[in-house]
Amino acid sequence: MAARPYRQVARESAVRGTEQQIVEAFATLMETRWFDEVTLDEIAAAAGTTRQTVIRRFGSKAGVLSALAAQQDSTIRTHRWQDAPAEVAGIIGVLIADYERSGDLVVRTLNQEDRIPEFGAVLDQGRRGHREWITDMFRPWLDKREGARRDDLLAELLAVTDVWVWHLMRRRQGHDAERTQRLMTQIVERLLREE
């Protein structure tokens, strides 16, 4: 009798391991391919499993996308909220570290938003999370303003900390992560000084 619960735990662990491999394989494929180009067979092959296993675990490619989005959201929340810095440079440092981990995949997903209906909910969740984080991190500055002035500052902070700004500086202008962090910090500090 004692062996049965152990086998169930081991089986559940194996299932979670397979699911994680599928999600990771899908994320890797999405780094260089468009969503509609990636097939269930390719996801299965990259994960070392079968198409039927992918379907059984996630139902469809959209199901794998949802699992990836949930995992990304959890990872972002863990990294961004873990040690909340009090100064602007530290806040931007946390943001840049996050973008260095996931920014390229996020930008690739954003580029497909108009073509792939499934991306809407995923990206809206990310936008809400970013807004929540910016509001939390910059609360001391936001709370010094009221009404429209506060709303305007929040809108400006959301714009200048958006992943597209990181993408522009890192991928289009060719700055390294350190310079990108310094430039974004300077932009935000100027914004916060304005009255």
Kindly describe this structure.
- The chain is built from 10 helices and no strands.
- By secondary structure, the protein is mostly helical.
- The longest helix has 28 residues, at 3-30.
- It has 2 domains: 1-59, Homeodomain-like (Arc Repressor Mutant, subunit A, Orthogonal Bundle), CATH 1.10.10.60; 62-194.
- The chain has helices at residues 3-30, 40-47, 51-58, 61-81, 88-110, 119-137, 139-142, 147-160, 163-172, 177-193.
TL;DR?
GO terms for molecular function: DNA-binding transcription factor activity; transcription cis-regulatory region binding. With 195 residues, the chain is an all-alpha fold.
Strand content: under 5%
Mean pLDDT: 89
- Strand tally is 0
Task: Specify the overall morphology.
Answer: elongated
How does the SSE layout of this entry go?
Layout: H1 3-30, H2 40-47, H3 51-58, H4 61-81, H5 88-110, H6 119-137, H7 139-142, H8 147-160, H9 163-172, H10 177-193
Which short descriptors sum up this protein?
10 helices, Arc Repressor Mutant, subunit A, mainly alpha, 195 residues, 2 domains, transcription cis-regulatory region binding, transcription regulation
